[in-house]
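Moderator note: this is an archived Q&A kept for reference. The question asked for a predicted structure of one protein chain; the sequence and the answer are reproduced below.
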Amino acid sequence: MIRPNNGLAVIGWSWDTMRVWTQTRPAYDQPEPTDISNEREIMCSIQPAHPEDIHIQDVNFELDYKLIYTKDSLSRGEYCEIENQNYFIIQNDLWNQYGFNEVVAELVKS
């Protein structure tokens, strides 16, 4: 079965640039991150996401959530910066067979 490549549509709607990175989590006695690596910028489309619409357990209704659509590879556990705030990627729905990725990112509490 031939699947449509919707990646070109995602590129056409990608007007946001977002910084993405991997961060080693500190031990309990270290307040700051220990290592930031794999930092890069990607093109994407970002939309607000209501917690009731993203279908994950343990949603904190006090936090902000974003839906991110991109052709680039993003992984659960990576961090990203949206509107000068840090978000943590908590869900990655792989739509690679259709040419794009959809991820859910949760605002990092300060």
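Archived answer notes: The domain at 7-23+33-107 is CATH 2.40.10.270 (Thrombin, subunit H).
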